Amino acid sequence: MKSANLTDTRLSSPFSWRGDSFPPILDSETPNHLERIRELGIPTIFDIHTHFFPETIMKLIWRWFDNVNWAIGYRLPELERVKRLHHNGIKHFTTLNYAHKKEMASSLNDWTYANYQNWEGAIPFGTFYPEESVLAYVKKAVETYGFRGFKLHCEVSKLNLNDPELSDTFRYLEQKEIPILIHTGTAPLPGEFTGIQFFLPFMETYPKLNVIVAHMGAHEISAYASLLGRFPNLALDTTMVFVDFLATGKETEVDAAIPLLETYQNQIYFGSDFPNIPYHLNHPISKLLDLPISDLAKQKILYQNAKNRFFK
Ligand SMILES: [Zn+2]
After folding, report:
1. How many A from CA of 51 to the centre of ligand 1?
2. pTM of the model
């Protein structure tokens, strides 16, 4: 798609933008954040929130985004997308996907396992869904496939974290210390089971579970962040929070969240939501680098925290 068309799409998005101009959507030849991260001693960026789906499902997802005028910055074939990550200094990234219904998660895991070795730098993540076979295929994903984490999407999957059908699986992952990245927040759209009122009882049931909350829990960032002191294995990802596109961040909420990055610098990960972002990757990275927080916090968020977790 030509960038002019994407600008039209962005103009008609129901989600608002900060400021009155859009960040570019196409990668520059040498993204200017590469020099900046080098100066900070960051060898490479670790993106905790990147999506990989089988082509047919990805196209359905893109159609959904098209219908809400959410421009897709990287609507490219899979291997081209991986090159774009590398081009932007992202040498480690996850393979997030999720099931929209029953009897889908296990085959998504099979697909990820069959393909992720073609994506240099990919950290394989699986998914699961409340259904009878869930513990069996999650064990297979961990013990046979060697997956390093799982992704759940409470809004799209209409998934209740407190569903008893998932409790054995959560206990298993808690004991194995395997992280689960969860879209539990109410942004960009609330769901039947999103929000802190579902998340808090879940954490109280599995207090040692390694959980990474997508989008910092927006639109309830402060409520989610208030749990970080109480649950040391809980973390947040910055995905789509400190950017000019305000689908997952309201201006006042985002500004109030900046000091949290300093306070909880060991429990925050950088995430982008690549490839489904209406701007190039330079934008979220530069915005994070521009924030008034310490260099140490930036190093940890962009690289070190994820490195410590996944390359022990
Ligand atoms: Zn996402």
Report:
1. 7
2. 0.95
